[in-house]
Amino acid sequence: MQAPKVTEAMLTPKSFLQIYDDEDLLLENGLIKNEILEQQNEDHPMLETCIVDHVIFNGSEITRFEATDVIFTNCDFSNCNFSEATFYRVQFLNCKMVGINLNGSYLNNVEFKNCLLNLASLNIVNAKDVNFVECRLAEASFNENKLKKIKFEQCDIDKMAILETNMRNVDISTCEFESLEAQQELIRGMQVNEQQATYFANYFLGVKIKLI
């Protein structure tokens, strides 16, 4: 995936609230740090070429959010509604995203690294070149998605629901789970490790594999 085209040296310190100063709700070239923005309510704000660090958006309704060349680090998006978002060349690093709603979103060249995404809603998502690295996605829903070049690396995906989503060529072999909700016809071609293959054989066929 392509990394965001932004460095701290090219930015000016700004507040996220300055986005409301623009008629089009656009904030550009901003270094946004250490803000508490809980319960924000806005439709179609736009961030371009920004770094957002240690900002709390907890419980906000920010629908149709657009972000291009943005890095979010150590932010709290718990229980936020980001439905129908558009993220292009965006990184989420060490973010808390429990219960976030990203339904109907378009994700292109997006990375989630060391993020807490338990109970997240990632449904009806169009995702291209998206990486989940060392994330926790326990009990997340991942349904009715269109995927291209998706990676899950060393993630906790226990009790995740993956329905109506073609998982062909998606590699989950480094991930951990005790149970997973999936559909047999849509995980064909998914890459798994030996333990996971044993789980799916038992889950779909009732076959118990005896290792010798």
UniProtKB/TrEMBL annotation:
InterPro entries: 5peptide_repeat, PA_immunity-related. Pfam families: Pentapeptide_4 (PF13599). This is Pentapeptide repeat-containing protein. It comes from Paucilactobacillus hokkaidonensis.
